[in-house]
Amino acid sequence: PQIAYGEDVVARMALVQKNSSLAVHLQSLVVDALNQAAAEMVTDAAFSTTDIVEAVVVGNTAMHHLFLQLPVKQLAQAPYLPAVAAGLDVTARDLGLRIAPGGVVHLLPNIAGYVGADHVAMLLATGVAEAEGVVLAIDIGTNTEVCLANHGRLTSLSCASGPAFEGAHIKHGMRAAKGAIERLRLIGGRVEYQTIGGAPPVGLCGSGILDSLAQLYQAGVVSANGRMRKHPLVREDSKGGREFVLVSEAEQVEGRADITFTQKDVRELQLAKGAMRTGIDVLLKENGLAAEKIERVIIAGAFGTYIDVANAMAIGMLPQLP
User: What is d(CA 135, CA 206) in angstroms, rounded to the nearest whole number?
Assistant: First the structure.
């Protein structure tokens, strides 16, 4: 719900610095969302939210600070220092969470300004610290956190990958919801796709966006430098740029317009995937390793469940691995 105040955390921190009263409002938005989530979770259970005596909350460092109403000015300026790095236990009533009033909310530690408790949670959930050999763990989002485990030594960083893979800044991008195209293939000049819930297509979610770029690149519609070439399904859009028609108006439910993938969309994805790949390459360099030394890759979260790994490698988001 904070997205109305900025699609990324840097924009939200800038707003809070300009208007300190907004910090209270942004915190209340998060608390309301968590309270709603807790209420939905207990709907079919034999207890109420006030029976919950413990909660664990994780987020990136900026969200962690906004949730606790900690100062964020120092997070937005080099060297990007968190006000609190250690784990914290806070009483639910002090945060406004409607669980047991004396219930304890555990917040995991932050590692650095842009590597937060959400990354710690990913490391714990995937067991990367105990992994043998060389393992790469990635949590893709507006900030993509990456960890390279090199025989027990962990090195982590954050990439400013932006919200493109979450559907933002993409002409027909959307979050993963009913009707979002989640799988896409270009076969013999014909587009085949699969939508969430089998519903009529309304846009592209993250995995569908990735598939679109990879398929257009592999078919030669998009060049190696990201330029969209001429093709029977490529046309000029209203702003004079090129766009590829994925689903035509004729195929749509009456009243719905074409779903297209534009030259601007290609550029947005180049920035996002470039940031991620740079992060991976930096970690490899820091550890003195070549990409082929990676034995396992873990992609966390919903994106990891649906991502087409071959397509991710095709566009250079991930190194070429067996």
Answer: 24
CA–CA gap between residue 139 and residue 59 (Å, rounded): 12
19 phi, psi to nearest 5 deg: -140, 95
Short-list 66, 71, 68, CA closest to 12: 66
What tens digit of pLDDT does each residue of 244-266 get? 999 998 787 766 889 999 999 99
- The residues near 198 (Cβ < 8 Å, ≥ 6 apart) are none
Write out the E strands in 196-233.
Answer: 203-204
Decide: residue 170, CB within 10 A, 0-12 exposed, 13-18 middle, 19+ buried. buried
SS (H, E, C) 290-306: CHHHCCEEEECHHHHHH
Task: Return contacts of 56-59, CB within 8 angstroms, 24+ apart.
Answer: 56/105, 56/106, 56/107, 56/108, 57/105, 57/106, 57/107, 57/117, 58/107, 58/108, 58/116, 58/117, 58/118, 58/120, 58/121, 59/116, 59/117, 59/118
Residue 142 phi, psi dihedral angles, 5° rounding:
-55, -45
Q: Which residue has the tokens 């550029």?
A: 267
Sheet of 54-57: strand order equals 54-57, 104-107, 88-91
Q: HSE on the CB side for 319, CA within 13 Å?
A: 20
pLDDT digit string, tens, across residues 90-134: 999 999 999 998 999 999 999 998 899 999 999 999 999 999 999
Alpha-carbon distance 181 to 192, whole Å? 10
Give the dihedral of Cα atoms 292, 282, 125, 317; nearest 10 deg.
Answer: -70
CB 301 within 8 A of CB 141: yes
Contact (Cβ atoms closer than 8 angstroms) between residue 295 and residue 148: no
Q: How far is CA 191 from CA 86, 172, 177, 301, in A?
A: 50, 16, 21, 27
